[in-house]
Design goal:
This protein is α+β, with helices and mostly antiparallel strands and about 425 residues long. The chain has 2 domains: about 100 residues, OB fold (Dihydrolipoamide Acetyltransferase, E2P); about 290 residues, 2-Layer Sandwich (BirA Bifunctional Protein, domain 2), CATH 3.30.930. Helix content is about 30%, strand content about 25%. The strands form 2 sheets. Strands 7-8-13-12-11-10-9 form a 7-stranded mixed sheet, sandwiched between helices. The chain has a 5-stranded mixed β-barrel with strand order 2-3-4-6-5. The structure holds 4-amino-1,4-dioxobutan-2-aminium adenosine-5'-monophosphate and magnesium ion (MG). It catalyses: tRNA(Asn) + L-asparagine + ATP = L-asparaginyl-tRNA(Asn) + AMP + diphosphate + H(+). This is asparagine--tRNA ligase. Its EC number is 6.1.1.22.
């Protein structure tokens, strides 16, 4: 039988069952009588130990080469693993030029170094772990919204018509929320961010939800907090070794920081309170905090620390700062809308959302002021024909991974990062 490394490692039958395992050599150790190889195929962090006698030619079996091993699965005498593969036949599928290969056996390469090799870095333990976590987190998010069914990916076809890249699925979700009371989408979104920051990409994945008949921001915040916590618990229980490796190698102390986030109720402050807090500490900042001005990353990070490193919702932002669709709070001279951002440790803004302006006349005026009336007739229609109070949010998926794993640079949590002047692969 052909087995993945993961299945081989977990095999119950170790009484010499004949199996075939394929993968890449992660280490070679040759002793007088025997040769030890470790084979990895991406199915688990742990590699499978292959034991071969000295009749096998170790020169061929270089670090990085791809191989197919046939042999018997047996109980390992070593305490380090339960199972090992006693090789009867080893076939090199593809040689690896070890001298030119950018990764060296046993060396722990920093993430910045690995980033130079987007086409090869997924062969390292650390990127393997990050990407397995990414995959588990994707599944966890889908199962949060849709507990029992498989995901259907829609086909895209542009024919000969000019097409635009979407910056958000929100407006389409709002259309859907006029018939389905709870909808979500999870896919790539695009922003022409002229930024080399550690938390911006030109193409990132966003989880967006839209909920009809919501009564307040509170309703939305509850879903955001449940999404964050439920998905994270699923990831932690489905790939504990990979999360552990990231925490141990990349971000010592992250395990405790994450637990702290999971066991506390997220906090809530208003934008106005946030600005007050920041003003008290303005000597710490490059950008002076001021009511009516957007929060900078440095402000967001300060607020999270100020809140004891518990994620914090900031609500009710100045109307003048926010897009036309956010619901008017009709409050005092400091005019705000029902917007919410969730700020998290290490990252800053992770979620952005709002109640939507469901009142026809309010929306009509806001559109007129933005000069968008003509283009958004269809959007006004949604308010003419059975409008309901609704709201939604978007969560940056890469920032989510950064937050739970403690990864400083967003380019390290996506297989092929696209950012300013870099869409090379
Ligand atoms: O705050 P944003 O721009 O909100 C929206 O797009 C809303 N229309 C979503 C909605 O209500 N349906 O983006 C949402 C989140 C941000 O909080 C951030 O985590 C992430 O998306 N994000 C980015 N992540 C990586 N690179 C970028 N350039 C990002 N821009 C936003
Ligand atoms: Mg935002």
């Amino acid at each position: 039988a052909k087995l993945s490394v993961r299945d081989a490692l977990g095999a119950q039958n170790t009484s010499g069952e004949r199996v075939k395992v394929q993968g890449w050599i992660r280490s070679v150790r040759s002793q007088k009588e025997v040769l030890f190889l470790h084979i990895n195929d991406g199915s688990s962090l742990e590699s499978l130990q292959v034991v071969a006698d000295s009749s096998f030619d170790s020169k061929e079996l270089a670090f990085g080469s791809s191989v197919e091993v046939q042999g018997q699965l047996v109980k390992s005498p070593s305490k380090r693993q339960n199972v090992e593969l006693k090789a009867e036949k080893i076939e090199v599928v593809g040689n690896c030029d070890a001298k030119a290969f950018p990764f060296k056996y046993k060396e722990r390469h920093p993430l910045e170094y690995l980033r130079q090799y987007p086409h090869l870095r997924c062969r390292t333990n650390v990127l393997g772990s990050i990407l397995r976590v990414r995959s588990e987190a994707t599944a966890a998010i889908h199962s949060f919204f849709k507990p029992s069914s498989k995901v259907k990916v829609p086909e895209e076809n542009f024919f000969n018509v000019p097409a635009f890249l979407t910056v958000s699925g929100q407006l389409h979700l709002e259309v859907m929320s006029g018939a389905f009371t709870q909808v979500f989408t999870f896919g790539p979104t695009f922003r022409a961010e002229n930024s080399q920051s550690r938390r911006h990409l030109a193409e990132f994945y966003m989880v967006e939800a839209e909920i009809s008949f919501v009564e307040s921001l509170q309703d939305l915040m509850q879903v955001m907090e449940r999404l964050f916590k439920t998905a994270t618990m699923l990831v932690l229980s489905n790939c504990p070794e990979d999360v552990e490796l990231c925490h141990r190698f990349i971000a010592p102390g992250q395990k405790d920081r994450l637990e702290h986030m999971l066991k506390n109720n997220f906090l809530i402050i208003s934008y106005t309170e946030a600005v007050e807090i920041l003003k008290q500490a303005s000597q710490n900042f490059t950008f002076t905090p001021e009511w009516g001005v957007d929060l900078h990353t440095e402000h967001e990070k300060f607020l999270v620390k100020h809140c004891g490193n518990i994620p914090v919702f900031v609500v009710n932002y100045p109307l003048a700062l926010k897009p036309f669709y956010m619901r008017d709070n009709e409050d005092g001279p400091q005019h705000t809308v029902a917007a919410v951002d969730l700020l998290v440790p290490g990252v800053g803004e992770l979620f952005g959302g709002s109640l939507r302006e469901e009142r026809y006349h309010f929306l009509e005026q806001r559109l007129a002021r933005s000069g968008l009336t003509e283009a958004y007739q269809w959007y006004l229609d949604l308010r003419r024909f059975g409008s309901v109070p609704h709201g939604g949010f978007g969560m940056g998926f890469e920032r989510y991974l950064q937050c739970i794993l403690g990864i400083d640079n967003i380019k390290d949590v996506i297989p092929f990062p696209r950012f300013t002047h870099s869409c090379l692969l």
